[in-house]
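Q: For a teaching session next week I want to show students how multiple molecules come together into a single three-dimensional assembly. I've collected the sequence lines for a complex. Could you give me the predicted structure tokens for the whole thing so I can convert them for display?
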Amino acid sequence: MEQGLIRNFCIIAHIDHGKSTLADRILQTTETIAEREMRDQVLDSMDLERERGITIKAQAVRVPYRAADGRTYQLNLIDTPGHVDFSYEVSRSLAACEGALLVVDASQGIEAQTLANAYLAIEGDLELVPLVNKIDLPAAEPEEHARAVAELIGGTADEVLRVSAKTGEGIDEVLEAIVERVPPPRGDGQAPARALIFDSVYDQYRGVVAFIRVVDGSLPRGAKLRAMQTGLVFAAEEIGYLAPEMTPTEGLGAGETGYLVTGLKNLGDLRVGDTLTLDAEPASEALPGYQEAKPMVFCGLFPVDSDDYPGLRDALERLSLNDASLVWEPETSQALGFGFRCGFLGLLHMDIVRERLEREYDLDLLTTTPNVEYQVHDVRGEVQQVRSPVDLPDPNDIESIEEPYVRATIIVPHDLVGAVMGLCQDRRGTFVTMEAIEQRQQIVYDLPLAEVVLDFYDQLKSRTRGYGSLDYEPIGDRSSPLVKLDILLAGDPVDALSQIVHRDVAYVRGKNLVERLQKTIPRQMFEVPIQAAIGGRIVARETVKAKRKDVLAKCYGGDISRKRKLLERQKEGKKRMKQVGAVEVPQEAFLSVLEIGSDD
Amino acid sequence: MTEPVRHLYVHLPFCASRCGYCAFVVEVGGLGSRDDYLEALTAELEMEAHRLGAIETVFLGGGTPTLMRPRRLRELLDRVRPLLAPGAEVTVEANPETVDGAQLVELLEAGVTRLSLGVQSFQPSLLATLDRAATPAMARDAATCAREAGFRSLSIDLLFGVPGQTADDLASDMEAAIDIGPDHVSWYELEMKPGSALAASGVPLPDEDLTATAYRDIVERLEAAGYRWYETANYARPGHECRHNLAYWGAADYLGVGIGAVSTVGGRRWRNAPRLEDYVGRLSRGEAPRRTVEVIEGAVARRERWMLGLRLDAPRDLGWAGPPDNPAALDRLAGLGHVESDGGELRLTREGRFVQNAVLGELMEFA
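A: Of course. Below is the structure for the complete assembly, covering every listed component.
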């Protein structure tokens, strides 16, 4: 298709601000999807996405649109994930577009992530089409928020569209604005072919499917392709676009987006961000790619039942097929046996992976405290990367420890600024700036990532009654006085409960943790002391008293089955326990480490 | 052909009112249906008589069996008597407020050898919590009455762990119980049974440490008074152990008749459905009661033997019980001082008996 008739765009929105509904409505209005096939969040293909109302993987859907000027345009809607963990995927989507719809909830206004992603889009030279959504809501204040959006990105409030994706009001104007305001692609249709791989998924039957944006030239069906970075040469089995189902074509031309069925068996064979060209007539220079997604958060995943270890490995292998940002390696814990240390983009990513493992692969898992990657400078002048508290060298061998910091941007109503600053201070934050946005404050803090990955987001939500929004970006490592906090059960350290914490909070955190564990661990047949130790010195102790009575009372009228069933139920409960030495520890005990609340 | 059954349970579900802690199969009131029920009960007994050999023990439980008219109880016992082995134990449960001297004499004459009085407590406030109709004085009177009538084996039932029960209450109950001088005491911990009024009221049970102390105090006090702690919740003067319950704990076969009654015969266990009208209707048409059946064999039977056998103070023969699922746990439990094994025999230590459930959970899988 002629590039002048193509528009590639994405949607930037905060979670719950209506991005998926807007996408649904665009597909419906343009009759890309028949009325009877319409269901909520058509583009979110994973069950988890639909359930949690979030979009994880970017996809590109071709939307034919007959505009007011009488011409039919090819609009390519490239979906973007809405959560901070996936900002890396957002930037991938942006690189495939010339424009973006910037969606702001008409009752809630701009949120931190919206802002962060809008800035990403501006940096990427995208044309922004701002709109306020949900104008049908009684609490909507479209004028006020439109003015604020215009102020932020430049322009006038009149240019901000008023939309209700729910009722369909304003959708036609959105489609017209895409055609009028988003520039057409400007590649060279005659140059040697160059196509950017902006995403890929693994399909059980078809192998790796790559989503591509053709920049220059064209990719005909059946052509032999070359990945410019890796040098891999392969023939695409099929080429086409999403409508939104996969629709094969004769080829993709400059400016178009679509997919390739590669027949490759491993996602790793084809790197996202690589440039595809024709093997017979290669381009000389690759397109600028992406930085590789770097795992930020690490935790141990252990099967509750050690027989499930091979099953867990298979499941991780299969998940990795579709999630290049998930990294893992075998880990052995004295307490928990064989498992894997896994790296994730963030906490939500971790949650999603864990939930998919449990749900789709029917595994019972224990998750250890998430932590970040530390740079440990030892006394010999060498640097070690430490991703697990267990690997932290002896204190005497440590010269200094650096931990990753992030710059966190938080937007809250004025009256909650104090609460947020209190939280950031508790979490070792350093104040950077604060400024007013609309009726709210944008607060910027530098925070150790380790403090953010525990329950920071939950705490932010609870202290701001749900109004606080958060975005963060890594800003490098900083040196901190960190120590290892160990937990001992019945005198033996439990590696899976160890944490690396700041020296100043280590005592309080240790004390809180043993108190929580004391409440979580049921009585055993013997007394179980629970101790917290910093650098080998015991700083707190609680005791789980021994069971003194555990009998089934009455055996009435020969009703023996009832008693047996009680024991069977009890055994069922025990299965959720992990045997740590001689102590039976419920899963919640390992999770209790996650809730640090406040250190006072 | 399975061995003849030598133990019979007869369920008499009628009560004047339902007690707060009760979730048993009972019928409150229902005066008109009592005769019909007895007739149905007799019919079921006749239907199942082919399974019975000479009966060693009979247990008439409830409900409140002594709420039946003495003549009716006697008719029932008359049916049973020809089936009894010499020296058979025949127990009847009774609530103190429902017994009188003449009735007790009649029961003795009808062949009852053992009376089990549902006292529960001697504290008026706790009796009120439990919705029990009898006063402490009635309990004492009933015991005296039983002795005067000539009962040579008297048991009383008591409860601990009752909401509001103080250490003083318990001490006073222990002295009152010993003072009555029963031959046998069943002293159970109160269970919050789903479906009981007490559970619905939301009253919390006492703290685990308090009930553990109560339990241990009871064992100690009754032993000092000459009772043997022969089963988890049962204490007896020599020769007065409840043979009927020993049969359950020895995994013997037994036949139960009446609504809600359970039988276990030759590896099959069945439970009669609890609805009285349905039961009476079916038996009047010559049909068997509606039942749910369960097969007890293999690992299930073995686990039950462990579950039942470990309730007793006597060592259990491992040949009888079969091997434990986790033999490795034996050493650890011995190390903790909870079990002692000697060749082919195994017994729980005193400490082990207090936590027998946990011990059992270590040894057996109960999957």
